[in-house]
Amino acid sequence: MDIIRAVTSGVMVWIFVFSTFFVLSLIPGINASETLQSVIVCIMLVLYSFLGARYYYRKGAQTNGLVAGLLMAGVILLLDAVITVPLVIYPAGGNHFTFFTSLILWVLVLEHLLVTFLYWKLKVPALR
Predict the structure, then answer these.
(1) What's the CA gap between 26 and 49, in Å, rounded?
(2) Rounded to whole angstroms, how far apart are CA atoms 29 and 90?
(3) Is the per-residue pLDDT at 121 higher than 70?
(4) CA max distance for the chain
(5) Is residue 63 part of a domain?
(6) Most buried residue among 37, 56, 59, 101 by CB atoms closer than 10 A?
(7) Quick check: is 56 in a domain?
(8) Contact present, 68 and 1 (Cβ < 8 Å)
(9) How far is Cα 86 from Cα 43, in angstroms, rounded to an integer?
(10) Distance from CA of residue 102 to its chain's centroid?
(11) With contact defined as beta carbons under 8 Å apart, do 120 and 64 qualify?
């Protein structure tokens, strides 16, 4: 397992998702609907997770896609805990508990795991 590449992939996916939520929060009409923002991010996350997986596996890594996805998701959640929650959620009146018990967060995590696993299953040459 290439931990540096997995961490880098996780950071990359987090930046994409954070940036998407930020841009969506600036668009009139979309910024008033957390549901609409979440749906758009959910759609975009397929691309972001694909790109993260492609980066991770580009140098020939053979790590199980679920394991690599879990490590990336752990990095993403850590960045959420130390950056997203204090800078975005607290000012909006939320806290770590409300953020980490949000259903959409866990839907996005599961989606990321699924895309990473499928990338590994379909794109990584079988040396398993």
Answers:
(1) 24
(2) 23
(3) yes
(4) 49
(5) yes
(6) 56
(7) yes
(8) yes
(9) 26
(10) 15
(11) yes
- Which pair of structure tokens corresponds to residue 66? 């679920």
Cβ atoms within 10 Å, residue 97: 9
The token pair at 77 is 């959640």
| Claim: this prediction has a pTM higher than 0.90 | yes
Instruction: Domain of residue 17: give its range.
Output: 3-123
Domain total in the chain? 1
Query: What is the Cα Rg of the chain in Å?
Result: 15
Q: Which two tokens stand for residue 123?
A: 């794109």
Decide if 128 is inside a domain: no
| Tens-digit pLDDT profile for residues 6-47 | 999 999 999 999 999 999 999 999 999 999 999 999 999 999
